Amino acid sequence: MSKLPKEPSPLEERFENSSIDFSTNKRVVDVETLRKLSNLLDNAFRIPGTSIGIGIDPLLGLIPGGGDFIGGLLSIYIVYSSARMGAPKETLIRMASNIVFDSLAGVFPVFGDFFDVAWKANVKNIELLETHLQSPNKSKRANRWFVYFVLAALVFLVIGIAVVGVLIVGLAIKSLYALFG
After folding, report:
1. Could you give the C-alpha distances from 100 to 10, 68, 110, 157, 173, in angstroms and in order?
2. Were 142 and a residue from 1, 7, 82, 89 both cysteine, which residue would form a disulfide, CB within 3.0 to 4.6 Å?
3. What is the largest CA-CA distance in the chain?
């Protein structure tokens, strides 16, 4: 076994002068994992010649119903993990609002996907989590029942939006069939 000192992770270097307690490597790993997930969802690929990133979330949104459902569940996981890390009620409400806004825009085919490229709800939510973790004022952790309520409301919203997406596609197909068939 090597006795060399452990190199700090990029996240530890980023918050070197903050008040985040990195006494456990688990929290560092958790935040880094969530950041990777948010980047995969919102910034996985760069549009050549621009600084615009596109993740798999807007690409999943092109799949009627199911894509928004999968993207929504992955976004909810970020909120769930933030709650487990002690995010306060106010932070969780802002995170949920980002997902609601993103999901409601996703109801509109194509427009919702372009909106998703610009809005980047998951990156915003990770920034909210990191702001909370950096805060020298430790806020009160959200009540367990509040967290359950927020997560359940988000799951129902995502399911509802998936159903609406399927209904819109069904109506479009029915209309095309009536026109041409």
Report:
1. 31, 12, 18, 8, 27
2. 89
3. 75
Which one, of 42, 43, 37, 142, lies nearest residue 86 by Cα? 142
Is residue 4, in this structure, part of any structural domain at all? no
Q: Which residue has 């807007």 as its token pair?
A: 58
Residue span of the structural domain in which 39 resides: 23-180
3 domain residue, yes or no: no
pLDDT digit string, tens, across residues 14-36: 555 555 555 557 888 899 999 99
Q: What is the pTM of this model?
A: 0.81
For 68, counting Cβ atoms within 10 Å of its Cβ (0-12 exposed, 13-18 middle, 19+ buried), the class is: buried
Residue 34 lies in a domain: yes
How many structural domains comprise the chain?
1
